Amino acid sequence: MVLDIRLTPNEARVIGCLIEKQHTTPEHYPLSLNALTNACNQKSSRDPVMELDEATVQDTIDALIKKRQVIEKSGFGSRVTKYQHRFCNTEFGTLKFSDQELGIVCVLLLRGPQTPGELRTRTDRLCKFQDIHEVEATLDQLMQRHDGAFVAKLPREPGKRETRFAHLFGGEITTPYATAPVHTAPAAAGTNTDRLAELEETVKQLREEMERITARLDRISPDEDAASMP
């Protein structure tokens, strides 16, 4: 059975936030309207950064309740209505993800298209990957599941060495270079491009560290430098 789940950008943000907070701050989950609004508008770990008011978030929640993707879940005696998702991995639905699949889907919902390297770093609080090849293998699984393709590989942008991946819960992808998403081959051994991208990232980090060290040395006065000599 192929599942057909279509989310608006606001709905994707709400679902992504509920999944994220369920796993990173379970003591505060389910979320109140205020907590969910704050999560949607976080300045970090979000792309794009949104400025949704509570009325808009409430309308989005109501739409998701009608789609049976969110339910109210308040504790005994609580005066505050709280919400939890039933998007996946719940007793209410048939959509099930592994921890790694869920981590990738959650981050794609919250941050849009990303490279395998970015996904490995940004899913750290949700799941663990041994290396970038494991990320690629999980992406391949998400593109070839029997119940639907939930992720697409986007055509490489001009001037970019790495390809990006996007979720398909919003329907057709409309980014400039996403007119013809294609599946990847199973990523068992990796590619030269991936290795080169990892090396470039390492060189970039080393260069930044060298610049920081040089800046600290430049701030040392001649007298201090002489005093430090034997």
CATH-assigned homologous superfamily of the largest domain:
Winged helix-like DNA-binding domain superfamily/Winged helix DNA-binding domain
Mean pLDDT across all amino acids: 84
CATH structural class of the largest domain? Mainly Alpha
Outline? globular
State the secondary-structure class. Answer: mainly alpha
Number of helices: 8
| Total count of domains | 3
Largest sheet composition: 3 strands, antiparallel
User: So, CATH architecture of the largest domain?
Assistant: Orthogonal Bundle
From N to C, what is the helix and strand string?
A: HEHHEEHHHEEHH
- Low-pLDDT segments: 177-191, 221-230
Query: What's the total number of strands?
Result: 5
Strand order of the largest sheet: 1-3-2
Task: Report, as a whole number of angstroms, the end-to-end distance.
Answer: 76 Å
Note the main attributes of this structure.
Arc Repressor Mutant, subunit A; 5 strands; two-stranded antiparallel ribbon; 230 residues; mainly alpha; globular
